[in-house]
Amino acid sequence: MVDTVIVEAETPAVSAVLWPAITAGGFVAAAFTLLLLALGAGIGFSVISPWSGAPDITTTKAALVGGIYMAVTAVMASALGGYITGRLRVRWTRAPLDEVYFRDTAHGVLAWAFATVIGAALLASAATIVGSGAAANPGPTANNNNDITAPFLDRLFRPDYAALTGGTGQQAAGVFAGGRDLAADREAARRILLSLRDHGRTELAGDDRQYLTQMVAARTGLAPAEAQRRVAAVEADTRTALDQARRIAMQLSFWLVAAMFLGAFAAGLAATEGGAARDGR
């Protein structure tokens, strides 16, 4: 009697982390994010008009709309990338069902993280390219349209032509302008106004306000009392604008964090669904 021995061929071990599927899902999520952001930019340009009655894009309401769209974009793109990751991964035939669910969820989160890192790297590269030209095109200054104080500086140094046509006003402004460049005065005024933000002040220091008043009076031909009222008005408007910019930046930061959390959750959940569809569960 001959004994027959049956030897089962062992199934090669499959890695618990399948990077090809993660990479594919991450690239899909990143590409779909760019598509949705481009769509959002197009929608934004379509509703913004330079004419009267157009919505103000610098308000907290606009920041709320932008934050919601950012969160929706993160959920949709991450869910698509996570689902593709789940469908493309190899079956784990010997893993328990709860372990399969965990691995699918982890793969979705890894795909989201891969897409996030790719997006951050692209943004960093773009920032590096833009920053390399800083010597030729310096950052925000008193003459730069990107500076929040630019319109306030225009108001501050708007000349009183009625006063400058007279003898004393025209002479005083002409003498002062001959001794100091207007751009230098605008830059000095800009730094003084930004001290409200940089030093956390609720109002300008007394000597700074007095210096601005003297500068405005000499530059514009206004009487000292009128120059003081203009400085006070510009100071109040600048403080309001800086506070508005702070609130908008705060809201967008919170929305960015929320969008990232929602994106990670959507990616993990969609990867679980994709894995279940792949396994026929």
Q: How would you characterize this protein structure?
A:
By secondary structure, the protein is an all-alpha fold. It folds into 2 domains: 19-136 and 255-279, no CATH class; 150-245, no CATH class. The chain contains 9 helices and no strands. The model is unreliable at 133-145 and 167-178 (pLDDT under 50).
Overall radius of gyration:
30 Å
User: Any idea what the shape is?
Assistant: rod-shaped
Order of helices and strands: HHHHHHHHH
Flag low-confidence runs.
133-145, 167-178
- The average pLDDT is 78
The profile of the biggest β sheet is: none
Structural class: mainly alpha
If helices are DSSP runs of H or I spanning 4 or more residues, what is the number of helices? Answer: 9
In whole angstroms, the N-to-C terminal distance is: 46 Å
Number of strands: 0
Overall tally of domains: 2
Proportion in β-strands: under 5%
- The residue fraction in helices comes out at over 70%
Q: Care to give the gist of this entry?
A:
This protein has 281 residues and is mainly alpha-helical. It has helices spanning 19-47, 60-88, 97-131, 150-156, 161-164, 167-179, 182-198, 206-220, 224-279.
